[in-house]
Amino acid sequence: MQRYKLPYGVNAEIYSSPEIIDQSIQGKYYLGDVLETLRHLIPEYRNQVQLIYMDPPFFTGQDFKFRQPIGTKGWSGDRKHSISHIAYTDKEDRDDFLNMMTEILTLAHKLLTDEGCLYLHIDYRLSAYMRIILDDIFGVDNFLNEIIWHYRTGGRAKRYFSRKHDNILFYRKSKGYYFNIEAVGIPRGADRKNNMKQGKDANGRVFWSIKSNGKEYRYYEDDKVYPSDVWDDIPHLHQQNPERTGYDTQKPEKLLERIILSSSRPGDIVVDFFAGSGTTLSVAQRLGRHWLGIDSSIFSLHTCRKRLLNNKNVINIGFFYNKTIPVLSTMQRNYQELSIYNF
Question: How far are the Cα atoms of 43, 144, 196, 199, 224 from residue 204, in angstroms, in the given order?
C-alpha cells in the first residue's frame, strides 16, 4: 500500500496499491461541515447515489467522546487506561437543528438515483419530527418502514418504561427502488420448534411440522427466514467488542451489513453524512460498494483512516480535509501527476 498526495495545494491523501493507481477511487472521506460539503458534491453526484444511511446527533444535550486507548490495558478495553476527547457536541437549538436536517434531507433526495433509498437512524427524541420532514421531502407514499432496533444494554428506568430501541426511518425515492430481501435471509436452523415434530422428506431435507385442521404444515431447516421491521437480533457493541474504535455512538457492523446488502449492489455508491467511527464506510468497502463519508470531527477522520486502511478490501481511497472540496473531474486531471512517498 502506498500513500499518494495530490498536487496543486489540494489538501488530500490517496491510498492505493501501485498496480491499480489508474483505477477510480472506491471511497472518499471529507472532513468538513456537512451542508457545505454536500453543496459541493451535488453537481457531481446528483442522481448517482444508491443508498444513504444517516446517524445524526439525537438532540440529547450531551457531549460525546472519542476514547484513545493507552497501552496494553487500554487496547484490551480498560477505560481507566484511555484519554477522552470530545468528538462532537449534541447541544444545538432544536429549531436550528431541524432546519439543518431539512436542508440535509433535501440534498439527500437530490443525490439518490430513482432506485435509491434512505435510512435515517434516530430515537424517540426526533422520530416524530423527522417523519413529518421526510414525508414532505420524499412523499408520504415513499415511506416504507419504521424499523425498530431493539437492544438490551444500558440502565433500567424506575419512573417510566426503559427506552430500549432506536428508530430507523426507511424511505424510497421512487416506486422503482431496489430492495433485495433475499440478501439478508438466514436459514431457519435446527432449534427445536414448539409443538412441532421433526422429520425428513424423500430428499433427506430436515423439516419441522405441525398439523392443523387435517393439514400438515412443514418448515424446512434450510429455508430462509427474513427480518421484519423489529430488529432484536443485533446487539449493541459491548465495551470489549473487537469492533470498538473508541467512539461513544459507534454502531455494530451487522446493523449496517443488513441495510447495505438489502438496498444496494456491488459497485453502487453508499453515503454516510455523519461518518463518525466509519462503520458504514468500512462495511460498504468490505461488501464491494463505493462510498462517500462526511464528518466535521478530526477524531472521526483519524478513526476512519485507521479503520479503513486496516480493511483487507481496501483498493483506492481518498481523504479530503480542507474547505476546497475537489470534484471527480478535478481529481482526474491531477491523478496522473501524483507525487509519491512511502506509507
Answer: 57, 39, 18, 9, 17
Buried b / exposed e over 287-315, threshold 16 CB at 10 Å, is bebbbbbbbbbebbbbbbbebbeebeebb
Q: State residue 220 phi and psi, 5-degree precision.
A: -80, 140
Q: Which residue has the higher pLDDT, 241 or 73?
A: 241
Residue 327: per-residue pLDDT: 39
What would the grid cell of residue 329 be?
473531474
Q: What share of the chain is helix, strand, coil (3-state, %, to 5)?
A: 30, 30, 40
Q: For the sheet containing 197-200, what is the strand order?
A: 197-200, 206-212, 215-220
Higher pLDDT, 6 or 297: 297
Homologous superfamily of domain range 27-179+232-314 = Vaccinia Virus protein VP39 (3.40.50.150)
Q: What are phi and psi for residue 256, nearest 5 degrees?
A: -70, -30
Residue 111 CB coordination number (10 Å):
24
Q: Which of 329, 303, 336, 308 is nearest to 31 (CA)?
A: 303
Domain ranges of the chain: 27-179+232-314, 186-225
Q: How many residues would you count in the chain?
A: 343
Residue 343: per-residue pLDDT: 24
Alpha-helical runs (H) found in the chain: 34-45, 71-75, 94-111, 127-138, 253-263, 279-286, 298-309, 328-335
